[in-house]
Amino acid sequence: MRTKTLLLTAALCAAGVATSMAQVYSVNAVGYVNTTLVPGFNLISNPLVASDNSIAALFKDLKVDGAQVYKFNSATSSFKTATYDEIDAAFGPADAASQTVVPGEGVFVRLPAGTAPVTITFVGEVAQGANLDTPLPKGLSIVSSQVPQEGTAAELGLVGADGDQVFQFDEASQSYRTSTYDEIDAAWGPALAKLAVGEAFFFRNAQTAAKVWHRSFSVNP
């Protein structure tokens, strides 16, 4: 997955939120993120709050026959799949296409083999507030940073506990890089890799209870 970000906010740029490819044009906390999908699986997020966060709306420009979006259900450890049909020119079935993907969540997107890379654009507002809490249920979940920033999960505020694991997906090899938190070392091993803006990952909460990934963010100094 290759991600290019254009965040239309001087404050965000000053805070180091925008990537090195970003340009600043105004002081509004709105903008867009271009995410390039490759053939096979891509584990991505919706990094901005859109007016319509449904799969049908977010991926309306992904007009590739057979392209699929997989939304993970932590409670059942299963996926619900929306598939694009070029005859209907839409994702279906309706109950899958109507699922929402908000900042803090993530989905797998699969492009059929032999498909050329496709760039999709997310448009919306930057999430702000004192309580940007992403649920981390016991067991596996797919999560992402609610704020469109690049960095390791730890740099972006994720606090590990003994046995917790981060599974980062590599699109090139179609495999995972796994990091586990060791409370004795008080560190992730191997070290966490940086997350791109618009990248999601699997998190395994090894604790006995659910917890949250807490963020607090404002574009104002």
Question: Tags for this entry?
Answer:
single chain; 221 residues; mainly beta; five-stranded antiparallel beta sheet; 3 helices; 15 strands
Give the CA-CA distance, first to last residue: 32 Å
Major beta sheet summary: 5 strands, antiparallel
Number of domain units = 1
Structural class determined from secondary elements: mainly beta
Total helical elements:
3
Could you tell me the radius of gyration in angstroms? 17 Å
**Strand order, sheet with most strands:** 3-7-4-5-6
**Topology as a string of helices (H) and strands (E):** EHEEHEEEHEEEEEEEEE
Query: Are there runs of 5+ residues with pLDDT below 50, and where?
Result: 5-28
Indicate the overall shape: globular
Query: Helicity level, as a percent range?
Result: under 10%
Number of strands: 15
**Beta-strand percentage?**
35-45%
Q: Give the integer mean of the pLDDT values.
A: 90
Note down, in words, how this protein is organized.
This protein has 221 residues and is mainly beta. The chain has one domain (38-114, 126-221). 6% of the residues lie in helices and 42% in strands. The chain has helices at 10-14, 55-58, 94-97, and strands at 2-8, 30-37, 40-44, 68-73, 78-85, 90-92, 107-111, 118-125, 129-136, 139-143, 165-170, 175-182, 187-189, 201-205, 211-217. The protein has a five-stranded antiparallel beta sheet. The longest helix is centred in the N-terminal third of the chain and has 5 residues, at 10-14. The two termini are 32 Å apart.
